[in-house]
Design brief:
8 helices, mainly alpha, 71% helix, 173 residues
């Protein structure tokens, strides 16, 4: 199993600080804070679908365990948070470029690069097609496309969902 990013984060922050790279250490600290925010997010009981037929004690235990599960940082959660942060930084980069703010452009590009280094390599189109052929030998219809896309996203956590959607639409029966 791959080492989780969060396990390496403190060391990476220390290295960046020792090297005097405050831009890198700041984006890493922000990423760490996003992971912490995810782990400590309040989850309302009403957000948890409850199974029927449990006693009140069993329900209480079920809710506690479900909340723990929903706050667990997995590799997929890490990648999702990274992708959201990179998307925000790309928006910031576009804005900085419109204003011709060269220092900000350099800083944001550097931050994107730091976060990009944590992302697993996205699959090639050929790898996705191979996976689809193995797991959906009879193809899929336009109605089934949502499930097909979700299956690909489960298999390849770093995949671009919109690219998969276009590919699946193109290959659908």
């Amino acid at each position: 199993m791959m080492t989780m990013i969060k396990d390496k984060l403190d060391d990476k922050i220390k290295i960046a600080l020792k090297a005097g790279n405050h831009n890198e250490s700041n984006i890493l600290k922000l990423f760490k804070s996003e992971l912490t925010k995810y782990q400590t997010a309040e989850i309302k009981d009403s957000a948890i679908p409850l199974p029927e037929g449990l006693t009140s004690e069993e329900l209480k235990e079920y809710i506690i365990n479900k909340k723990k599960e929903m706050r667990t940082v997995t590799e997929k959660v890490e990648v999702d948070i990274l992708q959201k942060m990179i998307k925000k930084l790309n928006d910031e980069l576009t804005y900085a470029e419109k204003l011709n703010r060269t220092q900000l452009i350099d800083d944001v590009k550097s931050q994107i690069s730091v976060l990009d280094n944590f992302l697993p390599s996205p699959p090639t189109e050929e790898e996705i097609i191979e996976y689809l052929n193995e797991n959906f030998p009879y193809g899929w219809t336009k109605k089934e496309i949502k499930y097909t896309i979700n299956a690909v996203k489960e298999k390849f956590i770093s995949v671009d969902g919109s690219a998969v959607a276009k590919l699946c639409s193109r290959l659908a029966k």
